[in-house]
UniProtKB/TrEMBL annotation:
It comes from Flavobacterium cerinum. Pfam families: cNMP_binding. This is Crp/Fnr family transcriptional regulator. SUPFAM superfamilies: cAMP-binding domain-like. It comes from the Bacteria. InterPro entries: cNMP-bd_dom, cNMP-bd_dom_sf, RmlC-like_jellyroll. Residues 29-115 form the Cyclic nucleotide-binding domain.
């Protein structure tokens, strides 16, 4: 849980009273490898912080799932559109490895907004981080070649290359596993 406070205090100091209110609402939950954290058709009830593990967001398809996001240690994770609207998500959220999450319910977050001075800052930091990752990915898909996207992953997020099966990486950068294999042969 200390990781969460450290995450917030990179930019804003949290009083002990606000931290105690916030942390008292957190629930620790473990997910085994390959477990669904959220299934398509369910409504996201939590904003979560990854203590350890790897999370994958994907749209299930008959031929091949479409992976569109990964989340790692010390990052927030949520099917955020569903969390905000309280409507069902149209994608799955899966633990790619044994994962530990600290979870805050939608209702409890609303209480924190109302009860603490730092509440809105906490919500803002979480949502800004999720938004920035989404925007970066969208711009990458629109402006870069598949090889550029792969090279960027390799330099900016080497943990992706080390911890994610190649079929998911290929889907994430918008190509087939065979095309990724050709790119990797050219690069190495």
């Amino acid at each position: 849980m200390k990781q969460i406070r450290h995450y917030f205090e990179k930019t804003d100091k949290i009083s002990d009273a606000d931290w105690n209110t916030f942390s008292s609402k957190l629930v620790r939950e473990e997910f085994p490898k390959k477990a669904l954290v959220l299934e398509a058709g369910q409504t996201e009830k939590y904003l979560s912080f990854v203590e350890s593990g790897v999370i994958r967001f994907y749209i299930p398809k008959e031929e091949q799932d479409l992976t569109f996001a990964f989340v790692f240690d010390n990052e927030f994770v949520s099917a955020y559109d569903s969390f905000l609207t309280q409507l069902p998500a149209n994608y799955n959220v899966e633990a790619l490895s044994n994962t530990v999450l600290w979870r805050l319910s939608h209702k409890d977050l609303q209480d924190i907004y109302a009860q603490t001075e730092i509440g809105n800052t906490i919500g803002r930091h979480a949502s800004e981080g999720l938004f920035m990752e989404k925007s970066k990915r969208e711009l990458s898909l629109l402006n870069e070649t598949a090889e550029q996207r792969y090279r960027n992953l390799f330099t900016e997020q080497p943990h992706l290359i080390q911890n994610i099966p190649l079929k998911y990486l290929a889907s994430y950068i918008g190509i087939t596993p065979q095309a990724l294999s050709r790119i990797r042969k050219r690069i190495y």
